[in-house]
Design brief:
- The protein is mainly alpha-helical and 74 residues long.
- The chain has one domain (22-73).
- It contains 1 helix and no strands.
- The protein has one helix at 3-73.
- The longest helix has 71 residues, at 3-73.
């Protein structure tokens, strides 16, 4: 192989390497963003669970009060 062929080959490999490194860097950035999204969704899910549990407790208390009121009326 001549110097020009080696140079051409080296440039081709170098360009492919740059593309691969760029793709990997982009994927790493996407993974970081997705991890943050997962953490945020997990926090919101926990908040929703807490609110749901509170609503269930309030509903049970209301049912108890309605039952007591109905017994007093009857």
């Amino acid at each position: 192989m001549t110097f020009q062929e080696w140079l051409s080959f080296g440039l081709a490999v170098g360009c492919q390497l740059v593309v691969v490194v760029t793709v990997i860097a982009t994927l790493k950035e996407r993974v970081k963003r997705l991890e943050l999204d997962v953490v945020n969704l997990w926090e919101k899910q926990n908040e929703a669970k807490e609110k749901h549990e509170m609503i269930v407790r309030i509903d049970a208390k209301l049912d108890m009060l309605i039952t007591q009121f109905a017994q007093k009326q009857g």
